[in-house]
Structures are given as structure tokens and as C-alpha cells.
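Posted in: Structural Biology > Protein-Ligand Complexes

Title: Requesting predicted complex, (2S)-2-hydroxybutanedioic acid in pocket

I'd be grateful if someone could produce the C-alpha cells for the following input. Sequence and ligand are given below.
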Amino acid sequence: MLDKLERLPADIILGLAAACRADPNPAKVDLSVGIYMDEQGLCPVFESVRRAQQALVGEEVTKAYMAPAGDEAFNLGMQRLVLGEGSPALLDARVGSIQTPGGCGALRIGAEIIRAAAPDARVWVSDPTWPNHFPLLSSVGLSFKTYRYYDPASHDVDFDAMVADLKGATAGDVVLLHGCCHNPCGADLALQQWAVIADMAERQGFTPFIDFAYQGLGDGLDRDAAGMRLMVARLPEVIIAASCSKNMGLYRERVGIVLFVCRDETNAQALVSQGLVAGRRIYSMPPAHGALLAGRILSNPALEASWRDELAAMCQRINGLRSGLRQRLEQESGRDFGFIEREKGMFSFLGLSVEQAQRLRREYSIYMLDSSRINVAGVNDHNLDYLATSVAAVL
Ligand code: LMR
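-- Reply #1 --
Done. Output follows.
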């Protein structure tokens, strides 16, 4: 029976990282997976996380199962972080949440809820979007529509096209939005544009599902959340999938949360109960370690303050890398790369063809997706010149 199964190709992001690891070229540059790397090319542990971990390891008295909804300090801390201190939705108790295995787990539980509520719902995703959105959401049985989002010519959001396409989204449909730091293009909606999409959701009745994996990596924790919070303030229903992979560097610990912002408390509790049943069916209960660390940080003012400082420094460094990369690419190629500085978060498209991206991989050991999406946080002072001259050489 099992011998009928054929080998599948590697994941287009994770497979590329593996290919880079296997590349013996000492000059190789890994711009594949979205992880933050420091000047030495290492993905560091936050100092605040290290301190939380030392305390946790010293005090931990059990490895019994977590509660199905996860750690309470984590849930409360994340609700506050995502929705904002004093959020009216929180004060009205119309928010329910479940700790999930990573942001992917949050997307999956959100999708399960959507499917339970509206089996025929269509999920509108941006073109382009994170490639894993498709398998993650379609495995639940939801169908897709795409809306135009990024214009490669202007390197910006094609908002008119987005609005024109989303006019087709109706009540019972879901529109997947990237809360900030769009993956893969780095081009985000301005606040006025979020307001227009909120108007459309109000008028047309679709439900926003916001993938919020990069809070704090664009313009800071609160500014990155502004568009999402505007939706929450205006609309009766919003689903949010958030993650601590990037903003706490807890990638391998799989720390995520799904938040259901509902009409009222009764509905929020109903959705949590539905989400718990879905979680039990798939993974039973969430993992403990990472969420206990995040919960500790978010419930201890001194730890939270130092984590915020570390995150702000990381964000500032990424924005500095964006400026440096723009400058060096422009010097080497004589072309305009100003968009790299305007875009936010870890990712940007360099605007290369598939052939050019593949040539960079083959001839220069520079690993970016075929779409020319780069992880800006993989650039550093040691590889910047090599990257800029190599890109100019294939252009
Ligand atoms: C990425 O897009 O590189 C990250 O979100 C990591 C992943 O799981 O794909």
C-alpha cells in the first residue's frame, strides 16, 4: 500500500534553506527563510528570553499537559499586546483566544472555525501571499480567490486593483490580510487604506482574517498593529493569527495564538469551544515551553520592558540594513532600489526574474526564492558588498 506514494518536492522555502546549508561555498548568502540573523549570521536568543528561561527552568515543577487553551498569562499578555492596552473589544469581553502551535497552528484553527461556520466560504488571499497559506487553509477544505495586491512595476500596493477585486467578496467570505510586514513583498497598507477595507467589510459583510506574524518588525509594536486595531474597533467579527516566532525569536518553540473578536462574550466563548475541539482533533493541546516564556515576559514589567528594547533594536537594525542594501545596490547597478527602504519587515522582492534569481543561486551561492523574495534580515556587513555586486552582475 505505502509503496504507491511518490516522493514530493521539498517545500520551496524550507528546501532552499536546506540547499544553502549543504552548499560548501564559504561565501554563500542565505536569504531564504524569514529568520532574523545578527552580524555574525546567527539567529540569537533574546536576552529577555534567556532570563525568562533561566527562571522557568529553576521553578518548573511539572511537565503535565497544558490546558487545551494554553497558558493563561500568555493568552492575557498576547491579547493586550495584539489588541492594545485598554482595547474596547477586550473591555467588552468580546475576545476569545487559544494558544496554538505557532502562527501556522493559529491559521489552521482559524480556518477550522471558518469552515465550521461557513463551509462554502471563499478565502480571498493577496497576490502574492506566503506560499504556505494555500496548503494550510485548503487542507481544511476552504476554497480560494485571489485579489491583486502588489504591483511589481511600482514596487507598491496596487490599491485600486485590490479594492476592485475585493468588491467581489460577499457575506460569508473571508479576506486574509497581512497585519504588517507583508510576506513576501514588504509593501503594507497605509492606515487610510485599512479604513477603506474596513468600510468594504462593513458594507459587503465579509470577515477579515488577519495574519499577524511580524508585529514589532516594521514600525514598532503599536504602529504595526494600527490597521488591525482599526478593523477590530469598527467590525463585529475579526479573526487574528499571531505568532512569537519573529518578535521574540521563539521560532522553534512554536508559539502562536488565534484571537476571535466577536459580536459579544457568548459568541467569543462559543468560538473558543469550537477551536478547542478542532485543536484536540489535530494536536490535542499546545506545547508548553515557548508560551510559558512569552507569558512570563508579558506578565513581568521589567522583563517586558527589556524585551521591548531588544525588539526595537532589532527593528531598527533591519531598517538600517534596508537603507544600506538600497545604497549599495544603487551604487553597483545604477538602478532605483528606493522601494527597499520604503518596505517593511523581513521581506522584499528584489525585482529579478526567475532566471536571475536562479543564476544567483547557481553561480554565486546566494539563496533567495525564485520570486526574488529576500530575507533582508539575512544581510550583514560581511555579505553586503558581495550581494550587491552579484545582483548587479546578473541584472
Ligand atoms: C518565511 O516565510 O520564510 C517564514 O514565514 C518561515 C516559513 O515557515 O516559511
